Structures are given as C-alpha cells and as structure tokens.
Amino acid sequence: MIRGKITGRVWSSKHIETLPNGALLEVEVAGNTLVAFDPLGCAMGEEVLITQGSVAAAFFTKHKAPVDALIIGSIDDA
C-alpha cells in the first residue's frame, strides 16, 4: 500500500463506458503526483491509502476497469 495526500481532481467529460462511478483524483506521493480512482468520495487534503496494479484492477468484479491506482482507504486523524 502507498500513503498519499489528495491535491486535486481530474475532470474527464469523455471516458470509456466500463469506468465505474467514482472520481479521478490527483494524489501526491513522496513528491510525485499520480492519478488514482476514488470510489469512496474522499476530499481535498485528505490522506489516503492506495493500491496499484493488478490488485487495483481486480477490485472491480462486474466490469473490467482500466484502473492502475485505487484509493482503498482514508487515514483518520489520530
């Protein structure tokens, strides 16, 4: 798992039909930015946990979704 912080949204008015409901978010990870799919509804500035690769894609069981980075949790404040 990877820990990151949400820094923005990616808007896409055109996308493939098999992309499930959710948002594409920019996440800062160790000084780099990646785009992750968010099925949870996370907010700007929130710290999140991300999984990547085949594990992220395997989350979707009804359709094959071309997702390489998936937000799987929101880190609560201590």
List the helices and strands and how they pair.
Layout: E1 2-10, E2 23-29, E3 32-38, E4 47-52, H1 54-58, E5 69-74
Antiparallel strand pairs: 1-2, 1-4, 2-3, 4-5
What does this structure look like?
- With 78 residues, the chain is mainly beta.
- The protein has a single domain (2-74), classed as EutN/Ccml (OB fold (Dihydrolipoamide Acetyltransferase, E2P), Beta Barrel), CATH 2.40.50.
- The protein contains 1 helix and 5 strands, in the order ββββαβ.
Question: Notable features of this structure?
Answer:
1 helix; OB fold (Dihydrolipoamide Acetyltransferase, E2P); 5-stranded antiparallel sheet; 78 residues
Radius of gyration: 12 Å
Report the uncertain regions.
none
Strand order of the largest sheet: 3-2-1-4-5
Q: SSE string, helix = H, strand = E? A: EEEEHE
Give the % helix. under 10%
In short:
Helix content is 6%, strand content 45%. With 78 residues, it is mainly beta. The chain has one domain (2-74): EutN/Ccml (OB fold (Dihydrolipoamide Acetyltransferase, E2P), Beta Barrel).
